[in-house]
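forwarding from the other thread:

> can someone predict this with zinc ion?

sure thing
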Amino acid sequence: MDLNTQIEQLRPDMIAALKTLVNIKSVQDAPAPGAPYGKGAADCLAAALELCKKLGFRTHNMDGHCGWAEYGEGKEMVMVLGHLDVVPEGDGWTVCKPYEATEQDGKLYGRGTIDDKGPIIASVYALKALKDEGFEPKRRVRIVFGCNEETGSADMQYYLEHGGEIPATGFTPDGEYPLINGEKGVCDVTFEKKLHQSGDWRLLSLTGGTAPNIVPAHASADIACPADAKLPEGTDVIRVTRTAAGARIEAEGVSAHGSRPELGKNAIGRLCMFLKELPLSGDAAAAVGYIADMIGMDTVGKHFGIDLRDDRSGTLSFNLGMARCDEGKDGASAVRFTINYRWPVTYTYEDCGPKLNDAFEKAGWSIAGNNHGVALYQAPECELVTKLLAVYREFTGDNSPAKCIGGGTYAKSIPNILAFGPVFPGVPAPEHEPNEYIELDRLVLNAKIYAAAIRALAE
Ligand SMILES: [Zn+2]
């Protein structure tokens, strides 16, 4: 029997196994012994390893942080990295309850079906079919079940810090097809300025945005000013309202993902440009003036000289994501702005981070937080890229090239792997949404693709 027929015959088992995992609520929760990300994730890991044991694989549980199933011999190892943790279910489930996997119209509904329990089960049965076929890999194949992808990938940090073997090559079925061969580097940085204010015009509060990686659609500020002060008129995107202390200014923008800030309109930038024209003084004037002049509606960091670009992944993206203003320790208030920026895949943090930080520090700001990762990139001619693309093309006839993205996938958490599937181009991907589902035909197609991919990488 050929491998694909074999996989088709495993379809009912695959669906049953997926239901078992979906029905375990594996949202991050309070840690417990052996369950660093909560009991749900640990139970789900135990269930996945139990299944793999029954299928005839060697298994290992790494202290509840992650676990794996392994097959074959060989000095080197091919990793397939997926995750069992899910994001909270949220509201709006109408087809089924989020943790009661339900088949309907050729789809399996439930939290985690597409992200990432379905794809990892497809990988498990891909390996099962290869084993049944008698495939003898030259490299061991290890399917790793992570338990903390959605909330920081501390699972893979633990894996690496506790001697987890680094794969020679591999993929994570937690992205999209054809293949993601580049992921921009990402940094969230927060700059803070103390506001020692006197005078009639003062900034009382400033709030905008909900997360660093989202273009803020709303921002507002309260200011103090004399009761008889003449206030400027609002515009179609700025509203000015009188308050007891002075005035409230609200700015509207257009939300977009922080990796594509050019698709949005930044409400915080707009608000600062408006505030800059008011007769604020001292620190407040300097703070909003600096943000207005250096950022405003810019989305590439050009005034900081960090508007890097490359042919592979385009321009650095720059999103002024959040603004907050509150009381500092010494009684003076402080204003904080958080920026989320992403540099092109052929550059490093050193090419942009220090320049940006220096500029702010020279202007009297301090850094209240700075979290940066690395970019990931494998050139189109690398073996991993050519092999995975060839497999994808064989099954789909789609000859699109590999792509670079502004976001980060699980591939960044382990060296030498790339994100490959499970989402096909142009097909909706309802991950993180209510009524999350995977189309069962595509679950099986993924298993076929992953089987061919594992074979290509391991033989
Ligand atoms: Zn995922």
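Residues 185-374 form a domain with the Alpha-Beta Plaits fold (CATH 3.30.70.360). thats all i got for now
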